[in-house]
Specification:
The complex is a heterodimer of chains A (229) and B (262). With 229 residues, chain A is an all-alpha fold. Chain A contains 6 helices and no strands. With 262 residues, chain B is an alpha/beta fold. Chain B has 11 helices and 10 strands. Chain B has helices at residues 54-60, 91-97, 112-116, 118-122, 128-141, 145-148, 161-173, 191-204, 217-223, 241-246, 251-257; strands at 16-25, 28-38, 43-47, 71-79, 82-83, 98-101, 179-183, 209-213, 226-231, 234-240. In chain B, the strands form 2 sheets. Chain B has a 6-stranded mixed beta sheet with strand order 6-7-8-3-9-10, with helices on both faces. Chain B has a 4-stranded antiparallel beta sheet with strand order 2-1-4-5, with helices on one face. In chain B, a hairpin with a 2-residue loop joins strand 1 and strand 2 (28-38). In chain B, helix 5 (128-141) packs across helix 7 (161-173) and helix 7 runs parallel beside helix 8. The longest helix of chain B has 14 residues, at 128-141. The relative contact order of chain B is 0.18. The chains are: A mainly alpha (229), B alpha/beta (262).
């Protein structure tokens, strides 16, 4: 019996296009991660310039989302992918949508920073916010790694990390509440910081979605909403 | 010894099941210990690279391989719980119950009508009204009646390729088979004729057990209820078509259907 032949050229061409889609997703996630990092930096250092830069970057991430979706739809229509290729392309559409929203959250954080700078707020962001930002970014970076390398275990690890971020958000809420009760002048900046915390918590949620997509890609198991637990 | 007629049992449903079935062309083993239950009244697609044994398996279901010298098999191939390979099976009767359509349409050089009633005629149906009824019924079921009703007496070879292929399906249906085997039935047809054959199979699946060998994975995905993947003479995986083409369990299945062999 003959051994299996090489994939036909059509397939090779198709897999090159999948690799290109991966490269675009990687570029988009790198950009989204940078935006989160810069938005938090602007917040911590009252840096107006960096905050403005984050707001301006949004257009780039939006354009990448549109480009990835167009590439993915074209591959679905022209190549009729199956199995893991199908799961990857459908996942890529979802992941790019999540990354675009992460970009929006970075913009929200940057805009909070700009308002805090404008208010000349004296309230210093709590270290918990920095910790939360670090964790959310790590989750995002791991989730993308898990998706691009089809690593289900890492995807699950990302999902598990979300609880710690949720706990930090709750803790920040309590801390800010204490500030607000103690000194009414801190209410406006506290509400801004609460918004920042809420945005970071959402970034972690979206990273969790990407982690779930990675598990589906790697294992074919739907773990969203504990569907196949 | 007299051939034992392969009589249809009253509870016949067209269920096909291979149990530890192996097949040999002389010393060369083409199928290794295949166990596969094919659901009645459904379409099962057999996929796999060339030489994987899928056509051998298909042809084993109506003993079409018997015509090749030196072949033998072990294990069982059951049709409605009865082994097809028991000594004395009436192979001609078997092939009426299990019809077959090939990649290259092969109508007889006769009229459309004579092609369709060929089987019933050799089975002794002589009454003209009865034959007319059989012909119309089979051609209607094959979705061909409206296209050929005015040219039943003309040569079948004057039909288009797609029509000739559907005529071959009608010819098989005229024998009232329980199982229909198709070996790449649409690989030489244009997309419109292919769509007609696929639509026809979809309509027939409520009446028949259909097993189709195809290299066209999209076709397997479009029309079959279950899919079985063969590789190097082994059955690697069989599951619902939905599962096989989105989340196959076996790495080799995934590698084949995504074109990643190497």
């Amino acid at each position: 019996m003959t051994a299996v032949q090489d994939p036909p050229n059509g397939f090779r061409h198709f897999h090159d296009q999948i690799d290109e889609l991966k490269a675009r997703l990687l570029a988009m996630s790198t950009r989204a991660e940078e935006m989160i990092e810069q938005a938090v930096e602007a917040l911590l250092h009252n840096d107006h310039g960096i905050a403005e830069m984050v707001v301006a970057s949004d257009i780039e991430v939006n354009a990448l989302e549109v480009e990835i979706e167009q590439r993915a739809v074209a591959l679905l229509a022209l190549q009729q992918p199956m199995a893991r290729d199908l799961r990857f392309i459908v996942g890529a559409i979802r992941v790019s949508n999540d990354l675009e929203r992460i970009g929006d959250h970075a913009v929200n954080i940057a805009q909070s920073s700009l308002r805090l700078i404008e208010q000349r707020a004296t309230l210093v962001p709590d270290p918990e916010i920095e910790d939360m930002a670090r964790r959310a970014r790590l989750m995002l970076s791991d989730a993308l790694d898990a998706f691009l390398r089809s690593d289900g275990a890492l995807g699950r690890q990302v999902c598990a990390a979300d609880d710690a971020v949720d706990a930090l958000h709750n803790s920040i809420f309590r801390i800010l509440l204490t500030h607000m009760m103690a000194d009414a002048r801190t209410i406006t900046p506290s509400l801004e910081l609460l918004l920042v915390s809420r945005n970071l918590e959402r970034v972690a949620d979206l990273a969790t979605n990407i982690g779930e997509d990675a598990v589906y890609l790697a294992e074919g198991k739907q773990i969203k909403h504990h569907f196949e637990d | 010894m007299l051939a034992e007629p392969f009589i249809e049992s009253p509870s016949a449903t067209g269920a096909v099941e291979a149990r530890n079935f192996s097949f040999f062309y002389g010393k060369k083993q083409a199928l290794f210990d295949i166990s596969l239950a094919i659901e009645p009244r459904s379409i099962t697609a057999l996929i796999g690279p060339s030489g994987c044994g899928k056509s051998t398996f298909l042809r084993s279901i109506n003993r079409m391989n018997d015509t090749i010298p030196g072949v033998h098999q072990t294990g069982e191939m059951l049709l409605d719980a009865k082994d097809l390979y028991t000594h004395g099976t009436d192979v001609v009767a078997l092939r009426q119950r299990v019809g077959m359509v090939f990649q290259r349409w092969n109508p007889f050089p006769k009229s459309v009508y004579d092609n369709v009633v060929y089987g019933p005629r050799i089975n002794g149906v002589a009454s003209r009204p009865q034959l007319d009824e059989i012909a119309e019924d089979a051609l209607r079921r094959a979705g061909l009646w409206d296209e050929v009703k005015d040219r039943l007496r003309r040569s079948a070879l004057g039909l288009s390729g797609g029509q000739q292929q559907r005529l071959c399906i009608a010819r098989a249906l005229a024998n009232q088979p329980e199982v229909l085997l198709l070996d790449e039935p649409a690989s030489a047809l244009d997309p419109i004729a292919t769509a007609k054959v696929e639509q026809l199979l979809h309509e027939l699946k409520s009446e028949l057990t259909i097993v189709i060998v195809t290299h066209n994975l999209q076709q397997a995905a479009r029309i079959s209820t279950r899919t079985a993947f063969f590789f190097l003479g082994e059955l690697v995986e069989a599951d619902s078509t939905d599962r096989m083409f989105t989340r196959p369990r076996e790495q080799r299945t995934d590698a084949y259907i995504t074109g990643r062999f190497g």
